Records
---
Amino acid sequence: MSSDATTPLEIVRLGHPVLRRVAEAVPEEWFGTGRLASLGEALVRTMLAEDGVGLAAPQVAEPLRLFAYWLPARGDDPGLEPTVVVNPELRFVDPEPEEGWEGCLSIPGLRGLVPRSPRIKVKGRAVSGEPLSFTADGFHARVIQHEYDHLDGVVFLDRMTSVRSLAFEPEWERYVLAEAGPEAEG
Ligand code: NI
């Protein structure tokens, strides 16, 4: 990991074995340390620099269970500031999946339709160690499920029920965007 506090980290791409590993829980003694805070900041910085809405630690070759995400403001929805969730646990409140478009910074240039639970409960910790507990719906729930999957070595391609919707980004923008909802790239 780069020690420069302003430079985005390198994002590894599909084929790097770290993306297929089950990541390790962040050890209890790391909470509240500069080491964990720096990793969280680096995830946020890199996510924003690469125009993603989420980024999981394995995507920067750190096989640890944490991710960053944010929600851009849309219409009346103010969105959500960049947030880091450590050692997350998900519970599917509404397991009836809905399809939505996703992309991944580790699989650049592709978009695909992915079924996700539209409502989940999330528990985890902040980098400070403070407990986090909240419910996420819709796009929020989708982004978190995408990032959580990275912690288990799973990518969105694995979750697609069919690869028939898979599209390159320029073609997706040209032919699909007009009819599509927001996509989650992370
Ligand atoms: Ni991803």
Note: Residues 104-106, 146, 150, 186 surround nickel (II) ion (CB under 6 Å).
---
Amino acid sequence: MEIILVNFLIINAKNKYVCGIIGFITNNSEASKIAFRCLKNLEYRGYDSCGGASLHEGMIIFKKGVGKIDEVEEKLRLSELPGNVVIYHTRWATHGKVSERNAHPHFDCKKELAIVHNGIIENFLEIKKELEKKGHEFKSETDTEIIAHLIEDMLKEKGNVFDATVSALKLLEGSYALLVLHKGFEGMIAARKGSPLVLGVAENGLFASSDIPSFLEFTRNVVYLKDGDVALLKPDEFRIFNLYEEKWINRQIDTVEWDIEKAKKGEFEHYMLKEICEQVETIKRAIMQDERIINDVVKEMIKARGVFFVGCGTSYHACVAASYIFSKIANMHVNVVLASEFPNFEHFICKDTLVFAVSQSGETYDVLEAVRAARKRNAKVISIVNVMGSTLTNESDKFLLMNAGPEISVVATKTYTAQLALLSLLAYALVGKIDECKDKLNYLWNIIYHLTARSTREKIKELAEKLRNAEHIFCIGRGLQYATAMEASLKIKEVSYIHAEALAGGELKHGTLALIENDVPCIVFVSKENEKEILSNAIEIKSRGGKIIGVASENNKVFDEWIKVPEASIFNPIIQIIPIQLLAYYLAVLRGCDPDKPRNLAKSVTVK
Ligand code: F1P
């Protein structure tokens, strides 16, 4: 597999985006209606501004504006671009101005060419200077715009937009998923390097998009583009040229097996709630793995001199929980490192090290950088990912899929428990007990069914009513339950914006007890293994005025509120987090926050 070593230079923080792109080419004039529906499905990738361009009667027509997609649609009728080929973009600026000027599409000097882009062009300043010398005028502060001008420049020499695009791409450093329209070309160009881009092959046309769910209602046939691919799309055919191989190549059409309904909200008000409830099924799906691959992974683990687990956010918490599980079940020590902190430890990596990269999206920048650093030192990389065809699957030696289906809500819920289930399976596989693990995990089905049932949801909502005005919420646990406390506090923070903090039970006496004041809610995760110790922590908190919410199999007089979750020993993390995911969800809703699109957070964090 190919490794792209991106030398990441922060040239200009203003030009770092997380965003989504979609293009559609068809034989009829419905292109923009269909593509706009797909754009809406990409909103989770970014939603501060958006725009689109189409080709109509030999002219580029475009619209763009600031705001969420619906707001821009209301003002500009974005969905009504004429013509049979259209490209759209939804943007999420992590730094710098959100403005109409910076919204995509971007153009060449004469507005004969339009492009949308996801990624970062690192050498854009050098290229911009060269182009300015040649008389090009730039309208935005973005790195994207230089691509349009560069293609314009190359066109003089090459004479056709495809060859000009290929030549321009060869000069770019950094990452891109790119769609190009040109007034003299009845088609669309799609290119990818380091950012996600897939083709959808429908009966009535071709899609190019940042993800599959965006167009899934129109087709299940997909082509996973690889780095260096430049695709030339016509309404009923496509060809792919690879920049590195310098030739036209074949890529197979795969069929996506997911159910279309899985990518929609169904009866639920928000994706977050829907995805929490899906856990009844997703745990089972996570462990439906090819045992030959699991056994290969196990061999790699046994052979390895040092195993690292890296991830960010929720995925990192799954790694923390896994470190306890591997220790308890397989008597194996694993190093857990936040992907963003990996540079501080990477000198320990050698060719015999095994690195597990855990990421729902497979696009998280810090995780990809950790993987690239590990591969540079010749370590083996196995990733645990939810998104097939993501950059991480391309850049790992092996990958295991979580099989959780698309997770649309920005916050991770079902993929967290899928990660835990899959990691547990690996720990059991290490000691030859795969079947025992599967039996135990399948047994959780009934528990999860009750934990996500309407009646439980109502009770958790009542609890959320009581907590909705809290300024702080503390979560405590010991051992495996400490990992759950970390994930619980992240969920609460991410969606409800209440300050929540995880404390290890044993650490209270080392200072953090000072934080407990009258009526401060504290969620206590109890397991049989350390029941005595954690309940004594709960008593310490209660005697200082704290309100105790016990997540436990049995009630206890120290609890002010009790969330009943049966004891599941090593699998406690999977079931104990579910009521707190629900609690976070209801806290968000009651406080008027959108749980699917929390502020300052994007689903795929593709920036440093
Ligand atoms: C990691 C992560 C998520 C979080 C949010 C931002 O993503 O921190 O845990 O909920 O979506 O990104 P990933 O690497 O697991 O895709």
Note: The chain has a mean pLDDT of 91.
---
Amino acid sequence: MYSSLNEAVKDLFGSSRKITGQGYVTGGDINDAYEIVLDDGLHLFMKRNVRSALANFQAEAAGLDAIRATGAIRVPEILGIGTDGADSFLLLEFIEKKQRVKHFWEIFAEELAAMHHAPAAAQVGFGFPEDNWIGARKQINTPHDSWVDFFRDCRLEVQFRAADQYFSPQDRKRIDFLLSHLDRYLTEPVRPSLLHGDLWSGNMITGPDGKGWLIDPAVYYGHPEVDIAMTELFGGFSQEFYETYREAGAMEDGYLDRRDLYNLYQLLNHLNMFGRSYLDPVLRIVKRYGGG
Ligand code: ADP
């Protein structure tokens, strides 16, 4: 834990090192992001936010560590976490973007499948030892023995409760039906897989090796179809990715019947973060699974 950015830089890279440049990086929706340049030319990546965001940065670092520990796929190195005046920060290896390698999508799919197949590092069943964040909202990871129970209690129910104001009495009946019949639709996976947890195209960037690196995770142990469903929600992943993942990954028959239910969690989270514009897609899924 550092008590200033300068202290972190000096501790990590030597007491004579100085920051000579700092540029704003666009693309994030939660934190301020910066590319920092040191006097020897080294680039660092920093996320910055108010002091109370320190716990978010610690959770993000724990997620990156969990992914790294699978040995399956690259994530940026965590350099340090700290406070700086009224702010807190997370300092990461700067990922220099390079041109994509040939077969980029096939390699990414194989590596993601390897992450999903990796033995669980924590004996938590479904969930994670600590809660973390999904966008700006807390993500509850209380361990459960059953995947379906976990997805109901810690994913859908939490979000439905927060979004209650948007629903009519008839919607609420459908929601109750959906939640109490979840085991009709969802299947228990063979075993828990480590999930990225927020796998849209902005959270996969091409690194210096020309391959896909994962950033900004919201990890937990769950059904790997959750990550695949999320890649389809906002688009951007290629057909080769899906073809290879289908061969190498852990998808089961009937995935298309489950996909929208998994994405309902993300859509509800968007409804709770950004408001009404996400209500229609939520209601479409509620109608489909809510007993007519
Ligand atoms: P937020 O926490 O606000 O969602 P992101 O993780 O999305 O922030 O990062 C903001 C921007 O910085 C994105 O454009 C992303 O591609 C880029 N980025 C994230 N991590 C790194 C990194 N380690 N090196 C270089 N660029 C990064």
Note: The domain at 5-93 is CATH 3.30.200.20 (Phosphorylase Kinase; domain 1).
---
Amino acid sequence: MEVLAPDAQGIARAARILREGGLVAFPTETVYGLGAHALSAEAVARVFAVKNRPRFDPVIVHVAASQEAEGLWQEVPELARRLMARFWPGPLTLVLPKRPVVPDLVTAGLPTVAVRMPAHPVALALIREAGVPIAAPSANRFGRLSPTHHEAVLEQLGDAIDAVLAAGPTPVGIESTVVSLVEDPPRVLRPGGTPIEALRELIPELRVEPPTGPSASPGTLPRHYRPATPLFLWEPGPPAGGEALERRRCGFLAFQRPWEGFAQVEVLSPRGDLVEAAARFFALLRKLDQAGLSAIVVEPVPEEGLGLAIMDRLRRASSGRARLDETHIWIVR
Ligand code: TXA
Ligand code: MG
């Protein structure tokens, strides 16, 4: 763990760690973020591991200029341009459909990505120097308070991350306002550092979800990622009758070692590493989903570390459990 001064040398060091896939806590105007290379699923998986999140929530991607957002979003509507011109850099996060370059883990399987440009000289210099967009949730452990000082980061994550840029207190102290531009009219998903009143000057018809409402945080919704192909969790034991599907028409998502007799098999992590498994999880699920299979059977992973988040996501994505014999999968009702 390196405690870095927020000067040119410290920022250069932090940028290098990020480029190489490490984790760096850095100040923004709102709270400290736990940063990772946003285009590396493995680096982002480490963020979830360190935060001890019980499930994957979508993460905000930080950029140093509005043009960089254009490389992450499929297209940039006129309203987004006006919001960026008025509020960036600043505590406003905008949600729009993502380009394929953004890993599915960053968006927790959603087709959209949240992007913001922070108004903090250290954050901006860091992103510029890294030369890549930086994915960062608040730098706290799950369920704990968001850190507004590097001392708070050290207290919570000091032994678990590669470096922190120690820049003292953050000026805004509450997280950014998250606005979805996918919906029409646009909707506030999380109130935050940019006041609704200011946003209404540009979006008079803006809808505001109460912070306790069901869509306040998409991470808490039960249907978060559900493939179109029915998905079943493998359960050991002999088939007990019921509905059966031909095994050679089904896909299998294995943890460590491939299984025989399926139309298509994908392996989460040959070395049995849950961080690697988490990094590949959404992409492999999507691959199987697009293969025209009758069903996807998934081997449960160990429920420790990121395995908890993977299993949480799998339970919500699955239509139930299935047992196997040589030729068929048997759906357990
Ligand atoms: O001020 C902030 O926003 C801080 C600093 C570090 O930038 N970051 C932060 O990140 O608060 P986090 O992960 O604690 O909160 C991200 C919020 C969550 O409410 C999440 O559900 C929402 O943004 N979010 C992220 N991606 C989304 C997406 N694709 N669609 C809808 N909501 C999204
Ligand atoms: Mg947070």
Note: The chain is about 25% helix and 20% strand.
